[in-house]
């Protein structure tokens, strides 16, 4: 069992316990986002609202393009009164160390919220694309995702049913899921999607990083971690 991963899990355990182990929705504050990341990606807040039959339909799409380089999050909430939906988009890139300030050390990790309203035709087309891609078909428990790779996680409450699905590169072609292109056209952020790279170009795993004596190996400052699908959403994995 990897010591680095255990330290991540241990660091997350206390705040998760204090917060009831559930995300209450997206956060632009980097500390809050990191502490509730597993819950958020797993759509725990969407699951809870769906089980209680509270609120409109809600889809969350998370694109992990190497966690330390770029993460994209989309929350889509239907608006029953108009037949449309509200699309919220957040894009987080890697921290730019040159912008660090002593008084505001976390500023480089802040994300910016972008929103736009979708018309009835737009949300119907996007929902159809999600359905065609299998985004409403649950991924079995035990699927492990390396944060240093490229993958989508889609959590959704649709017609009173919660689902969590995963699309991973290279096991699936990220250009193939039908929802990617229509979503990119609707994205209000204006930030381009990074293209997936081959696994042989990925940074080293925590096991490969080994001891930090004599200085960290290149790519080991922020070693990757694991997310794993479970019957209840997404949990921290223990090993890479």
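-> sequence recovered:
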């Amino acid at each position: 069992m990897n010591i680095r991963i255990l330290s991540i899990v241990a660091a997350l355990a206390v705040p998760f316990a204090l917060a009831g182990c559930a995300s209450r929705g997206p956060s632009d504050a980097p500390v809050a986002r990191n502490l509730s990341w597993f819950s958020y990606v797993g759509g725990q807040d969407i699951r809870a609202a769906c089980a209680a039959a509270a609120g409109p339909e809600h889809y969350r799409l998370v694109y992990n393009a190497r966690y330390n380089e770029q993460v994209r999050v989309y929350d889509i909430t239907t608006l029953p009164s108009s037949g449309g939906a509200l699309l919220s988009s957040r894009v987080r890139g890697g921290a730019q160390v040159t912008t660090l300030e002593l008084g505001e050390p976390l500023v480089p990790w802040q994300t910016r919220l972008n929103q736009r309203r979708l018309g009835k035709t737009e949300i119907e087309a996007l929902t159809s694309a999600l359905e065609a891609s299998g985004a409403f078909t649950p991924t079995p428990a035990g699927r492990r995702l390396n944060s240093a790779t490229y993958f989508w996680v889609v959590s959704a409450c649709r017609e009173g049913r919660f689902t969590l699905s995963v699309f991973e590169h290279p096991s699936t072609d990220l250009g193939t899921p039908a929802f990617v292109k229509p979503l990119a056209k609707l994205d209000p952020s204006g930030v381009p999607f990074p293209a997936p790279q081959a696994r042989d170009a990925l940074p080293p795993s925590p096991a490969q990083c080994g001891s930090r004596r004599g200085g960290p190996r290149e790519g080991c400052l922020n070693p990757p971690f694991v997310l794993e699908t479970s019957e209840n959403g997404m949990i921290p994995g223990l090993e890479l």
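The beta strands are 58-65, 70-79, 84-93, 112-118, 144-146, 150-158, 161-169, 226-230, 233-236.
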